[in-house]
Amino acid sequence: MEARRILIIDDSDIMRRQLVGALRDAGYDCKGIPGVDALPPLLDSFTPDMVLVDLFTPETGGGLRPGLPRDGKEARHVPFVLMSALPEEQLAARARQIGADTYVSKRKGFQAFLSDIDALARQYRPNGAPDGA
């Protein structure tokens, strides 16, 4: 089975490296970029099954949802997952406001964060469609 591809968009170099390393160690094919400006060139060689975006990455703090190819052969739903260390109620509200598919909290600790990502990876098929869709 092919590894699920996860893209992390986080402007914190330290956090991005930690998340990419931990997700790779957990068996995911994972890439990290500092912001949505780096997205177009990356998509030429890496098509994610899920996108994790830190709420406070400058381009996303205002509610921008990263644009992914949605036409032609690559047209598909790619889950957009908001992540932050905000209190859960605030994070849930911001995720709804931005139009994220869901959210994961960085407050729970690293193991719980990875468990949440594993659950989301099971929830969504590799082509990005929710199970049962």
Describe this structure in words.
With 133 residues, this protein is of the alpha/beta class. The protein has a single domain, classed as Rossmann fold (3-Layer(aba) Sandwich), CATH 3.40.50. It contains 5 helices and 5 strands; from the N terminus they run βαβαβαβαβα. Strands 2-1-3-4-5 form a 5-stranded parallel beta sheet, sandwiched between helices. α4 links the parallel β4 and β5. The longest helix is centred in the last third of the chain and has 14 residues. The radius of gyration is 14 Å and the shape is globular. About 5% of the residues have low confidence.
The major beta sheet can be summarized as:
5 strands, parallel
Number of helices, counting only DSSP H or I runs of 4 residues or more: 5
Determine the N-to-C terminus distance.
21 Å
Q: Structural class, judged by helices and strands?
A: alpha/beta
What is the number of independent domains? 1
Can you describe this structure in just a few lines?
A 5-stranded parallel β-sheet has the order 2-1-3-4-5, sandwiched between helices. Helix content is 35%, strand content 18%.
Architecture blueprint of SSEs:
Elements: E1 5-9, H1 13-25, E2 29-33, H2 39-43, E3 50-54, H3 58-61, E4 80-84, H4 88-98, E5 102-105, H5 110-123
Parallel strand pairs: 1-2, 1-3, 3-4, 4-5
What key attributes describe this structure?
alpha/beta; five-stranded parallel beta sheet; 5 helices
